[in-house]
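To: structure subgroup
Subject: Chain for Friday's discussion

All,

I'm putting the inputs and outputs inline so they're searchable in the archive.
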Amino acid sequence: MLARALAAIVAAAWLVTIGGSSPAAADGDQNCHYETNPDTGEVVLVCEDPGDDGDEDNDPGDGGSSTCSYQGNEIPCTGPEGSTWSSAHGCYVGEAFPADETEPPPGQTEEDGAWHVCYFPPPGSSWELMWIENGTVTIDPEVLAQRAIASMDLDPITIGIVPESGANRVGLVGLPVWMWVDSPTDDTFGPITASASEGPVSVSATASVSSIVWNMGDGTKVTCTGKGTPYADHYGKQDSPTCGHRYAKMSTNQPEGAYQVTAASHWVVEWTGGGQSGSIEFDLATEPLPIRIGEAQVLTQ
């Protein structure tokens, strides 16, 4: 029966047609996964452009950017036919074959485990049948960590800034600009904790923003830790004690006559479970916010 199951796999021609490079070699921040061509049966690596605007914005919530590690390279956590990467076995483990179509190895019974297809990533890109005993961890804990992150539904921050954005709002060259996180929540700044489980494996993950990179639109990037200090009128012309900037030129020559300000929050996720632990980092960037800067006019007589 096992031979018949093996022949079925060979007939399907599940050949991984990847070269020696890993999926991490894909250009840009593409999301990659393995698919089986329904016409030819070939298993190929498919990479999709997330279609961002060039900012570093690796959204963990869509599930497509999840990556696992193999020999120091990043690979998709999902393999051919929906198989899941298992660091314990060094391959993508597919679903178990039905007991009535296979025979257990000598010394084992159907109650002890099952045969699975084990797909190996490049280089090599081969597969083999593997007997996996019941209770053996087949899912990589990092996959569960990614699921936990996705369940957090994290969002970019809401920008707080003075001068404010608006058609009738104009800041002045040389005066201090204050930046902060407006109305921070667990899902925009953290810390936030979530867990994910499959079979006997459970992973807990805690995510927090470690820093925010403010792209001021004038070629300057300002990195700030913490939430920043909200501006209040009594501060007058003081510099922000935590996160600020000064524009040296007017914004009249900029698109729409304004500097386009963005804020990329850098998330760090610490996870533990399944006898392992690790960290996952990514950025979530805001949409551009136009800030207009002019010059004070001095009248003389």
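Points worth raising on Friday:
DSSP finds two helices and 19 strands in the chain.
The first helix runs from residue 2 to 12.

D.
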